Amino acid sequence: MTESFNPQANTVFCRKYQQELPKMPHPPFPNKKGQELQETVSNKAWQEWLEQQTMLINENHLSMIDPQAKKFLTEQREKFLDNEDYERAQGWTPET
Q1: Cβ atoms 73, 60 nearer than 8 A
Q2: pTM of the model
Q3: What distance lies between CA 54 and its chain's CA centroid?
Q4: From residue 13, how far is each of 21, 45, 66, 85 by CA, in Å?
Q5: What is the pLDDT of residues 31-72, one digit of tens each?
């Protein structure tokens, strides 16, 4: 017996883009929050966040062992994914 293909199994209703998009192949963190993110954030939005996060880490010289840096990035991630105003790298300019 073969399983029927279910396209919905590979998509999520992305909280950033407010539409069905391909989901992340794996949770980004090995915990409940990672599972929640995989179920509510598209792979596209997550990849965009990773680019923003890298710029914030580099520009602000953040150390990932610093609890304050982790807290800052967590706050910015949630704002980014919820389409709220978030901290952007100084070199960042919006696309026109």
Answers
A1: no
A2: 0.83
A3: 12
A4: 6, 11, 33, 21
A5: 999 999 999 999 999 999 999 999 999 999 999 999 999 999
